[in-house]
Design a protein that fits this description.
The structure is a homotetramer. Chain A is of the alpha/beta class. In chain A, 37% of the residues lie in helices and 23% in strands. Chain A starts with a strand and ends with a strand. Strand 13 (293-297) of chain B pairs antiparallel with strand 13 of chain D.
């Protein structure tokens, strides 16, 4: 292994849960170190955040453009930028980084709107630089197993999916209490037009296409704003049709009182089905038409190559959210190194990127349109 | 306790899983005995079924009209009729019984079509006799607890429901192999126009209204026939709106390979939520916005009166499907006795009856219409 | 099927949870009807209990000897006696029944003491009549599956067992409050010398030998009386050695606060293991050294013949405690009929009988001796 | 935050699962960086390991004494030593580090034998340096919650514990196949006299005393070597007595085929009980004598201060083994800094240290003695 890749973060400062998670995930596998950041638009807060991360004071910037300029001038400057801001900044930060020749790892959704993601797609294509999107759940080893199992054909043709992402944390008007996470997510300007559908619906949508390998071709969505006074949707139900004729249901809610982070995917094929739940991530249930239900455990010797490739610990030693996140960073780091070595298509298919980003924003746009019209919409 | 009530069954003969279940459930609590039956339209098969049930040969009839006539003439004749036939016979059998002055306990759905159930409703009203509908799941003690909890207001206003009923047994064209259960359910003439939506969607629908106490007011349904050549739907997804503004998803499938009898209801209120799964019926999960998740166990001293009223065993001694079924029979028997004693409204609100029957058939009709038009429909 | 077998119960009157359970279980499969009983030593209470069971007043006796005499004189007299009394009456009632030529189905433990069970064994042998012992848990279909799996050799040689039976209901001195169940169980005269070890330890012990097919050959037991003032043990831990060199732990407690009826057996072989829990009886977990964990569901098409033989419902329709109990009654009824037809060894090996009764009482006696001496004891 | 603490690892080289885990855990929270190591006694292998960790070649040593000497001479030398070797090296490495003025974080068990741990205890006392012991499971937030709940008295007096640690990975003679982990653990010279009892029994023992706050005062242990030809025990059952009169069972096995890393602790008090399982670490079950079962979820707002202090992620985002491990490193780092600042007792009570190390080795020694004699032994 050569030197660690150097990462600079935009956003993720005080009050953001996701900043420290990015740092831990990026550094977990020893391939990356965070050395700079524009953690906040307040110089003072950015420096404080930098200090909490062990970042040298002069590399804790108040502006991402400044960070990019300054780091480009350093011999030991950053290799890539991580975007952990509210959604409205995803596009400008990504564009600035790409224009400066820096690879990008971005929080999802890729941008705040569908128009923006089209622009971003072009920027990524033009730059020819690695771009990764942290659909964290794609990093769990048993999501990889589920994906490989679908691809293997052992389940037979996929007939039905049921995906749900249920949270309860916005059951009350938390955004009015000044809670930072809730505040920007409830503001259409900072967040974009999709509330729950954009924040977590996109995860559910991505997981579905990621695991099944099938594209959604049309949908009928119902979005609601349950909490009075909220500006964006906080509860969504959608019926999906997939390219092979399969169908399914997608539920996403942030007012499902009592739920934590309930992302669950079930896929039904002709011969059997799979069932994975993010809150119990080290078990994958496989049910067969004729045969006992199976529980595949993370790190099982019987798992496919894709799952084993991203497993760190022996059986029975739980890996969690940070470890899944770190898988994406590891793949991104490997891809960035491969890119430097001139590899044509350096990022592995297992790592979500700009294509997933465009799909996700399209999903949000289509769901909003379906809800507006009350009709089915093509994708 | 006086003498046991005497029951005569129509249908439930050889090959029918449900006939013996009705017998076991009816007799479990010692209030009822099955003494007669028209188990099959073949005299020989009816007699064989009767013998397996310990029924005197002369009381195993080949025709339900004959049974009703003959039993009416006996001093020890039946007190009520149980209908366990394919759906197309539900109405004529019920009408014949009611006309003869016999109370009726019927398998669901109440009839094969919505038009029929309207006729049945009138027949029941005219006869003034007890009519029960075996929505079995309403008999589980923790369904009663869930219902009481919703009514108590402790969850706050109901905002969202998610109900699913997933089976896998029709994943292949079983009806073509001569399997009797599959055969009549796949035949529109014997079954009525709703396949999966009628067979199990109605259970999911009933459970939702039963537990929440809220009526569905509009819905958007998508019905599919997944198995090639099948005449009726075998997979259904619907989005529901409830009278208080709540919304939800109803999924029903008989091609969910690997599933057994997966009826599950989740109800989300402002303050918390409940989660009950028929395959784990002795536990009710209650999740609060602020507080630990609770598992309420059947027979817990802390359960409400409704649950305790229908519990037979101490904690940790599982009660199952037959016991739930028997609760309905017990309530029906008590109601029949009360009716004889002149009580005005003899059946308890906890026992599904003709009102539930009408709602269920309306649901099927509306779902088919929504699927046909692709639109939302009022209920 | 000919006429139903007629059963008379001793004990099981007011306040006894087990009386109605015996009645429901005995009658569930339509082979048996309860027609008489000596439910209480008070004539009035016996008659009241009889009435609650729908028993004719003249057949509700105040004395079991009277019941036996009177029923023997009737043309429609009972075929067998069920013993549902406190333990000290098990021997005299069984002896009286056997001497009168009546078969016996008895609650466990078979008697109050080891000396008594030796006497009973002789009485059964002398009478040559069917004698069944209601180790209820042996009636669950997945216990049968576990037993067949052990016998099949697929797990390899059994190396280790872990069995536990944890209840919390005696965490407080309930016997002092007049609770009838607690009162007699805490009285050495009515119960015999083994408290928890006799009441539920015997179940755990039986299940171990029943499923593994291996005999315990020595043990080291520690009995404690946790609740001050209680006369008998309420918590037991034992280490067991089995005839093939395997070893294991048996825990039984009635002061495990928060537990309901937690009987769980795990058996570890060279190649894999099984795990069954009474509170989740329709699932059997099978874990392999190399391969996914399996959950075998009751009624699965892949189950062995023994499990399928005792399954009433399709997959996903839970069967519970009463159904398991009823399996024993069904086997007993079949055995009794076979005995009448002159069959030499009429009871199936799957039905616990006097041999299991002797083993159980020996276990209690040995455990008490080990605890007294602090040493390992041979069995 | 000032500079990161610098850590040098002894052991943990190629083939060792635990080396990378120590590195990830130590660095997770951004307080520590691994900068040196004596990863293997082969210079080449140590350098290779160092390279995989991103360690400068000159700081990858072949001998721990050399590492200590060389690092002491560097201005940027290590602040503490992590011991991740087979057990027989724990004492000499720890002594060498302490003599050089370096704090120590050690894998458990603290030493290979009881005599050694007594020597180590003196060395730690003499050096006055922080010494931490990685009983990893003590780092889970819900273990902290369980500990705080026991201390709170809400469960009432503790009456009973049941602790088990079941693994299956040594079900076959893996040590003969050259598997490194199995090889040294099966060699009394490298491992010490306690096989399974030392490797994982000590974890179970520690967890018991850690959570309950009660000391074991006597025990009766049975150790077995199940796999033919193995030199050390691979399966252990023990009955424990605790200082307050409570009792319990400890099971540990490495031949429990099908088990992964099954560490589970149940504690029964007068009023309720707790149940925690390492393979489902983000849930703590609390069962009350009168009230619903509770599931406390990691990160719940209702958790005690101790659990919340070691939680990184919002509810529903699983933390796993590495995160638990990292909690110990974080506490150790804080303690080391506090020690430098002259704090008298710098390590928190929540971090296992030399006292736990002595208890653990005493437990092993006592268990072996009990097994040898067949008797209860005082502790």
């Amino acid at each position: 292994m050569g030197r660690k890749l150097r990462m600079g973060m935009v956003g993720g400062g005080p009050g953001a849960f996701i900043g420290p998670v990015h740092r831990m995930a990026a550094e977990l596998d020893g391939r990356i170190e965070m050395v700079a950041g524009a953690f906040s638009q307040s110089a003072e807060r950015s420096r404080a955040a930098g200090q909490s991360f062990g970042i040298a004071p002069e590399r804790a910037y108040a502006d991402y453009r400044e960070m990019i300029r300054a780091e480009k001038r350093r011999a030991d400057g950053i290799d890539f930028v991580v975007i952990a801001t509210p959604n409205h900044l995803h596009l400008p930060v990504a564009e600035a980084a790409l224009q400066a020749g820096l690879a990008v790892m971005s929080d999802k959704p890729a941008t705040a709107t569908y128009d923006e993601v089209v622009a971003l797609e072009m920027a990524v294509a033009k730059a020819g630089l690695p771009y990764g999107l942290t659909h964290t759940y794609a990093g769990y080893s048993l999501v990889r197993e589920a994906r490989q199992l679908c691809a293997s054909g052992k389940l037979g043709a996929i007939r039905k999916i049921a995906v749900e992402y249920l949270q309860g944390w916005l059951s009350q008007p938390l955004e009015k209490s000044g809670q930072k996470q809730a505040a920007w997510r409830s503001d259409p300007v900072l967040n974009g037009p999709g509330g729950c559908i954009g924040d977590i619906g996109t995860h559910a949508f991505h997981l579905t296409e990621y695991v099944t390998g099938l594209k959604v071709t049309s949908l009928h969505a119902t979005l609601r704003t349950v909490v009075a006074g909220r500006q964006l949707d906080d509860d969504c139900n959608a019926v999906l049709r997939l390219e092979n004729g399969a169908s399914g249901v997608l539920m996403a809610s942030q007012v499902a009182a009592g739920e934590g982070n309930g992302l669950r995917l079930r896929v039904y094929g002709e011969n059997g089905s799979i069932d994975w739940h993010q809150e119990d991530p080290n078990r994958l249930r496989v049910k067969w038409l004729d045969g006992p239900e199976e529980i595949r455990h993370a790190s099982g010797s019987y798992l496919g190559a894709d799952a084993r490739a991203v497993t760190r610990l022996p059986g029975g030693h739980p890996e969690g959210y940070i470890e899944a996140f770190a898988v994406l960073y590891r793949e991104f780091a490997d891809g960035l190194i491969a890119w430097r070595e001139g590899k044509a298509d350096p990022l592995p298919a297992t790592l979500p990127g700009i294509v997933a980003g465009v799909r996700g924003m399209r999903f949000v746009e289509r769901a909003i349109e379906s809800n507006r019209s009350g009709n089915w919409v093509e994708f």
